[in-house]
Amino acid sequence: MSFDEEEAYAITSWRRFDSEISDDLARAITSAFVLVAVADGDLAQAEIDRFSLLMKERAELLNPNVVNRIDALFSDIGGAILSDPDAGRVRALELIGKIKTNRTYCEIVRSAAEIAIVADNRELASEKEILEQICAAMDFESRAN
Q: Which of 25, 39, 96, 140 could disulfide-pair with 126, CB 3.0 to 4.6 Å?
């Protein structure tokens, strides 16, 4: 894929995500998890599987229609961030920042990011750095502090 194709893919993926998922908590959880998952430059199947399980475990907090659709969009958003990392990170952190006034949601999002860190059975410095950025976007303290 050329740069223009990658950028178009990323834009299209984010637009579809925005149009199909309107729940701010679901968007923030997905954004946090995928940011951590792609911090190593790859999206592993173990990370995709763990995200799916996490969303099913948190289903009572979300609109039931969202859980099914979000699963299908997760890999696409991961690909969008890998295609355009800088713009993807900015967009994901913006979505995460929208929930910062709800401390319970912030705890859920931080927890999702922490789960993503261990989803592939390894903890990388790049993933911990992304966790710090996620917490900063929510004005929320990370557990590392």
A: 39
